[in-house]
């Protein structure tokens, strides 16, 4: 097994194009900036942005090869509304070895 050369970090706003490119490759369809904004930035339970729980994996060339995120959710538990999270959009580039 080869040693992998990648790093992980929190999302920054400039990652959106790379994330959309990764999703297009992994999910075999195009996703727009409008879709990303609707799902993440306009989430009624909030968007934590760079302080939130979107994680990126990138290779040594700085290309995004992985994505994992949770979305804040408001959940009613009896009379109380609590904040929870829903894991979404886990993706790893299928040619990760070629991207090192």
Tell me about this structure.
By secondary structure, the protein is of the alpha+beta class. It has one domain: Aminopeptidase, CATH 3.40.630.30. 21% of the residues lie in helices and 38% in strands. The chain contains two helices and four strands. It has a four-stranded antiparallel beta sheet with strand order 1-2-3-4. A hairpin with a 2-residue loop joins β3 and β4. The longest helix is centred in the first third of the chain and has 12 residues. It is elongated. The model has no long low-confidence stretch (mean pLDDT 89).
Q: Which helices and strands, and how do they pair?
A:
Layout: E1 6-10, H1 16-27, H2 33-41, E2 54-59, E3 64-77, E4 80-92
Antiparallel strand pairs: 1-2, 2-3, 3-4
Shape descriptor? elongated
* CATH topology category name: Aminopeptidase
CATH homologous superfamily classification? Gcn5-related N-acetyltransferase (GNAT)
Percent range of helical residues: 10-25%
| CATH hierarchy: architecture | 3-Layer(aba) Sandwich
Structural class: alpha+beta
Overall pLDDT: 89
Strand percentage lies at 35-45%
Order of helices and strands: EHHEEE
CATH class descriptor: Alpha Beta
Total count of domains: 1
Gyration radius, in Å: 15 Å
Main β-sheet, spatial strand arrangement:
1-2-3-4
Total count of strands: 4
Largest sheet: 4 strands, antiparallel
